[in-house]
Structure prediction request, 360 residues.
Amino acid sequence: MTQGIFNIPFLAVAALIGIGLYIIVFDRNLIKLVIGITVLQAGVNLFLVSLGYRQHGGVPIYTNACHSNMVLPVPQALTLTSIVIGVAITAFMLSMIMIIYRHTGHIDAKKSRKLKG
Amino acid sequence: MSKIVRSTSEFLIPFIFIFGLYMIMHGHLTPGGGFQGGAVFASGMALLLVAFGSHKLEKKSKAHVLSMLESTGALAFIGLAFGGIAVGFFYNFLVGSSIFGHIPPSGPNRGDMWTGGTIPLMNMAVGLKVIAGLSLIVLVMALASDKTGSQK
Amino acid sequence: MRRVAAGISLTIVIAFLAVTALLVHPFGHPPAQMDDYIIKNTQRETGANNAVAAVVFDYRGLDTLGEATILFTAVAGVVMLFRKREGETTR
Prediction:
């Protein structure tokens, strides 16, 4: 357990994912549900970036580089993919919520269960 | 919005657009790329929308033009990916040729614009796609929320 | 009753995540054979100084193709949700 003290970023990842899951499970407001999903996405992105960190490493770009030790490029590329997908899905979810509000009149998940006309 | 916001964004928006285009063009040399530069450009569009209202912006940029630009970007991206099909999908077939074909010296260097093979062209295609797509999302959602707000 | 069951299972999941966070490789020392290959050969094989751009557009291009497809689908979905229907009766 001596390595436990160095794994604080992974503990932060666990905390972020836990907060996101708590919001998704216990909240009924649809806007807050989207906020919870966004927090969970932030946790996953932090996990990917901290998985690829190398001690005393710099950015993996050779233009005017002044260091020879570079962090891993593949997790950063996957994080880039994940961020763009998150933006697109968040926009889609928010527009779905706008349509639900226009049809039923409120954004509570319990009350807007029956979609009227 | 008020006059202060309007004149400030009139001053600021050209710089935001130019910074986004710079990020797309130098994607293979410096941090950034098609997705990031497109997001910066689309945030400039969002600032335009907030400052001047959605109806004024809709007259300038029609929704179907943006949709066509996005499809053009996607088609250019897939076409560039199919260009190296002789060796493999997404093979970088332009390295060593006359278009973006220089090979940089290994190790840290100054950065040459004319390197990278298909990567700068793919950056431009993806940048066009992201600019058009995110601007379309912001514009359509603003128009729809305008209508909802006036009905209530 | 339902909320209690949800709370218990959520606590179990978070405890599992916290234990797993302590058992990953130590922070700052990842296993890196593939990434060392990419860092060493990116300038010779793709000609780009930026290793992340080389990974996104060359080594793992199929991922980017899927990402572009998802972006296109989301934009098409948003435009389809807000299209104008004739005879639409909003409240």
